[in-house]
């Protein structure tokens, strides 16, 4: 048990980084192996400070790179205890090799990813390039849109990943600076409630249980590799009901409700914006104002669980609207936005197949304003009225210079 | 039964075998001798990390494993970090009392080939030594990337031909000298650093035991002759190792606390490096008249290094 009691108020003023680190403290993480990088550094610093001041009984391993950080997390997690760390951007990219190893070995590490752009050019501000880089890595990816959610989802992440039917690592994403460095009211659970919710770590295939030696990181070739990866994919898909169950349990103790896909004003919506991260809150304000000011029946669909991708829930949320703008905060690198492609694939399996447009926006921390969101809704309304996509299918929102866009609707 | 007091080969051969004979290393590969010796020199529980390389790909091919102890492999470069993480978790769980057997003695060991140790994993190992994890890092030094077909590493000696530092009409093979990894690790201030060889199995067992018993990060470079890439008959592994240690190409010594150097083996008759080189196909081209100067250069390097070791041993600094 920690030597010191951390005094908490019912209402605290925390930024996203502080909120995430408080969740690490309350979950009594055994080992944090980490390397600092802007904007996630305070999560790591705070954990170190909790150790130094006796607020947590854990090992703080400050390694020499993010690759080593995730490597040490893998070794620690295979040794049968609770493990968490944090990173951003280039650090996330450096970790990439080991992210795949962690999920392949089914180790329930929690990684707080404070989203930041990937260089070049070097940029410390928030976009979703790092989150997208992790999308095939076999991790569960949850998205927090504000500091409260960064805290709540970090607690849920342990309970989801460590569930014996899941046994997968979990990323909790928050937007760099907008969430990580903006102080807001946060309502924490008491230490007792939080730990009771997360529960004791129950090891599986523990390297420190010498009565049953285990081999981690074996080799498989064409004879077994496919079966292993298919089983891992199934475990990720099968985590969906566990995520739902953990969200329900969390609602019971906190009163705060989370769903893998969250709809706002979608009951009668004619047009919708689909988004990730802090963009969602901006879009919600825009939708409300447009309904009041211009009579556009706008709604917002937010993805809380980016992986496993909620294909069916996205479809259910959007199948009755006429036109959808899908927003990608990551440079698409010569393709349509990845998120656009995934949402479009889901909508293709509906009877009415709503129109879909792709908006690349907010790269490198470029502000996404309420007016930007309104313009997307207005263009969707024009599409809905015309019955086809009236603009380029891929557009750039908030970009300086001449309008940039690609591909047009093929009309017979 | 562990070799707690090193007596004879019979004792070694009947010792507890936690490394199964069933593996796919080449016949004549010294890796398995070294690994078995490590695992037989202690009764303590072992958590072993292994970098990608010959040892790893030959001992854990699903659904089989040669390891009757806790074992983990992540990537080519990061066994030291993985073991560091495991060691940190052991500390945390021991303090909290959450281990299945809180009093079970445990030792942490990382294995890497010279590619992983001298090159791609150097940063990870260096970081783990600076942090002071209580573990032993053992390099299985066969002086090339043998797992991928014999490419050069920074452990490859000058004059050897490899698939990426080829000898030819206009080249005598690798132009650069071998990195002095033992000195580099001693310079980390590690409490125990040594270079050992499987032909001198008693000193190897003693060195391993010292490293395991010493608190903090210990480093051991082991000579692991590679019949496949050094090009000699599999039956000759130990006699090649004898040539290596007796020509002083691989001197056997230890460095305690970064400064106290002890030579552990002094050949009665020091052989010429030429005898060692001539026994291996990878140096065959050096015996052409135009490349004789390289043999002289190698001999001079070996003489100078031996002189340095003796002086340091005497100076105790």
How is the topology of this model organized?
The complex is a heterodimer of chains A (412) and B (317).
Chain A lengths: L11 E3 L1 H11 L4 E4 L6 H12 L6 E4 L3 H12 L6 E4 L1 H16 L5 E6 L13 H5 L6 E4 L3 H15 L8 E6 L8 E3 L4 H8 L16 E2 L8 H30 L6 E4 L6 E5 L3 H15 L4 E6 L1 E3 L3 H8 L4 E6 L9 H11 L6 E7 L8 H17 L7 E4 L7 E2 L6
Parallel strand pairs in A: 2-3, 4-5, 5-7, 6-7, 11-12, 11-14, 14-15, 15-16
Antiparallel strand pairs in A: 1-8, 6-13, 10-12, 16-17
Helix pairs in contact in A: 1-2, 1-6, 3-4, 6-8, 9-12, 10-11
Chain B lengths: L8 H5 L17 H10 L4 E6 L3 H6 L10 E3 L6 H18 L9 E8 H7 L1 H10 L4 E6 L25 E2 L2 E2 L8 H6 L5 E5 L4 H13 L4 E6 L3 H5 L5 H10 L6 E4 L3 E4 L9 H6 L13 H24 L2
Parallel strand pairs in B: 1-2, 1-3, 3-4, 4-8, 7-8
Antiparallel strand pairs in B: 5-6, 7-9, 9-10
Helix pairs in contact in B: 4-6
Strand content of chain A: 15-25%
CATH superfamily placement of the largest domain in chain A: Thiamin diphosphate (ThDP)-binding fold, Pyr/PP domains
Assigned CATH class of chain B: Alpha Beta
Query: What is the CATH architecture descriptor of chain B?
Result: 3-Layer(aba) Sandwich
Summarize the structure.
The complex is a heterodimer of chains A (412) and B (317). With 412 residues, chain A is an alpha/beta fold.
Description:
Chain A is of the alpha/beta class. Chain A has two domains: 12-209 and 221-254, Thiamin diphosphate (ThDP)-binding fold, Pyr/PP domains (Rossmann fold, 3-Layer(aba) Sandwich); 261-400, Rossmann fold (3-Layer(aba) Sandwich). Helix content of chain A is 39%, strand content 18%. In chain A, strands 10-12-11-14-15-16-17 form a seven-stranded mixed β-sheet, with helices on both faces. In chain A, helix 3 (66-77) runs parallel beside helix 4 (89-104) and helix 6 (147-161) crosses helix 8 (225-254). With 317 residues, chain B is of the alpha/beta class. Chain B is 38% helix and 15% strand. Chain B contains twelve helices and ten strands. An eight-stranded mixed β-sheet of chain B has the order 2-1-3-4-8-7-9-10, with helices on both faces. A two-stranded antiparallel sheet of chain B has the order 5-6. The longest helix of chain B has 24 residues, at 292-315. The mean pLDDT of chain B is 95. At the A-B interface, strand 3, helix 3, helix 4 and strand 9 of A face strand 1, strand 2, helix 4 and helix 6 of B.
């Amino acid at each position: 048990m920690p030597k010191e009691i951390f005094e908490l108020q019912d209402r605290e003023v925390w930024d996203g980084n502080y909120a995430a680190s408080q969740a690490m403290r309350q979950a009594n993480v055994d080992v944090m192996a980490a390397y600092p990088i802007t904007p996630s550094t305070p999560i790591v610093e705070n954990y170190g400070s909790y150790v130094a001041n006796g607020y947590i009984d854990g090992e703080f391993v400050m390694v020499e790179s993010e690759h080593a950080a995730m490597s040490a997390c893998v070794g620690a997690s295979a040794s049968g205890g609770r493990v968490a760390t944090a990173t951003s951007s280039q650090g996330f990219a450096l970790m990439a090799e080991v992210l795949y190893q962690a999920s392949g070995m089914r180790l329930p590490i929690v990684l707080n990813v404070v989203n930041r752009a990937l260089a070049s050019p070097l940029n410390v501000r928030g976009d979703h390039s790092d989150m997208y880089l992790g999308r095939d890595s076999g991790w569960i990816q949850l998205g927090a849109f504000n500091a409260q959610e960064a805290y709540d989802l970090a607690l849920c992440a342990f309970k989801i990943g460590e569930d014996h039917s899941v046994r997968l690592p979990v990323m909790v994403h928050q937007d760099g600076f907008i969430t990580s460095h903006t102080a807001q009211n946060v309502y924490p659970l008491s230490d007792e409630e939080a730990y009771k919710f997360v529960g004791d770590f129950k090891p599986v295939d523990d390297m420190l249980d010498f009565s049953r030696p285990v081999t981690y990181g074996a080799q498989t070739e064409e004879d077994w590799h496919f079966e292993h990866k298919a089983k891992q994919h199934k475990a990720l898909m099968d985590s969906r009901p566990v995520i739902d169950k953990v969200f329900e349990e969390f609602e019971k103790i906190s009163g705060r409700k989370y769903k893998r896909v969250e709809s706002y004003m979608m009951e009668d919506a004619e047009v919708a914006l689909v988004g990730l991260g802090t963009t969602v809150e901006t879009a919600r304000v825009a939708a409300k104002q447009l309904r009041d000011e211009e009579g556009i029946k706008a709604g917002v669909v937010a993805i809380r669980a980016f992986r496993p991708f909620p294909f069916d829930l996205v479809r259910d949320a959007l199948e009755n609207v006429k036109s959808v703008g899908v927003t990608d905060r990551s440079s698409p690198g010569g393709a349509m936005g990845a998120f656009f492609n995934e949402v479009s694939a889901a909508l293709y399996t509906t009877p009415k197949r709503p129109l879909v447009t792709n908006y690349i926006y907010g790269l490198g921390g470029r502000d996404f304003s309420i007016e930007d969101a309104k313009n997307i809704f207005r263009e969707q309304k024009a599409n809905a009225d015309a019955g086809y996509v009236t603009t380029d299918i891929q557009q750039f929102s908030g970009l300086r210079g001449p309008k940039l866009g690609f591909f047009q609707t093929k009309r017979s | 039964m562990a070799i707690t007091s090193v007596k004879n080969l019979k004792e070694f051969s009947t010792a507890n075998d936690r490394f199964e004979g069933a593996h796919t290393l080449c016949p004549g590969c010294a890796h398995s001798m070294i690994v078995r010796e490590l695992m037989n020199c202690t009764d303590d529980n072992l958590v072993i990390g292994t970098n990608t390389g010959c040892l790893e790909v030959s001992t854990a091919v699903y659904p089989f494993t040669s390891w009757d102890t806790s074992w983990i492999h992540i990537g080519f470069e990061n066994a030291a970090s993985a073991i560091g993480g495991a060691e940190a978790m052991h500390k945390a769980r021991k303090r909290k009392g959450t281990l299945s057997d809180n009093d079970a003695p445990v030792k942490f060991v990382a294995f890497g080939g010279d590619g992983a140790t001298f090159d791609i994993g150097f940063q990870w190992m260096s970081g783990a030594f600076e942090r002071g994890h209580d573990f032993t890092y053992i390099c299985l030094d066969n002086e090339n990337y043998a797992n991928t077909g014999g490419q050069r590493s920074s452990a490859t000696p000058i004059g050897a031909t490899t698939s990426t530092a080829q000898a030819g009409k206009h080249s005598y093979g690798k132009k650069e000298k071998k990195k002095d990894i033992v000195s580099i690790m001693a310079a980390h201030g590690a409490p125990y650093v040594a270079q050992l060889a499987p032909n001198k199995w008693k000193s190897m067992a003693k060195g391993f035991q010292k490293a395991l018993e010493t608190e903090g990060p210990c480093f051991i470079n082991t000579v692991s002759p590679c019949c496949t890439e050094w090009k000699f008959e599999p039956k000759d592994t130990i006699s090649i190792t004898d040539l290596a240690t007796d020509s002083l190409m691989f001197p056997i010594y230890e460095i305690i606390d970064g400064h106290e150097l002890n030579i552990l083996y002094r050949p009665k008759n020091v052989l010429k490096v030429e005898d060692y080189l001539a026994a291996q196909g990878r140096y065959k081209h050096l015996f052409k008249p135009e490349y004789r100067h390289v043999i002289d250069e190698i001999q001079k390097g070996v003489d100078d290094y031996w002189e340095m070791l003796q002086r340091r041993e005497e100076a105790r600094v």
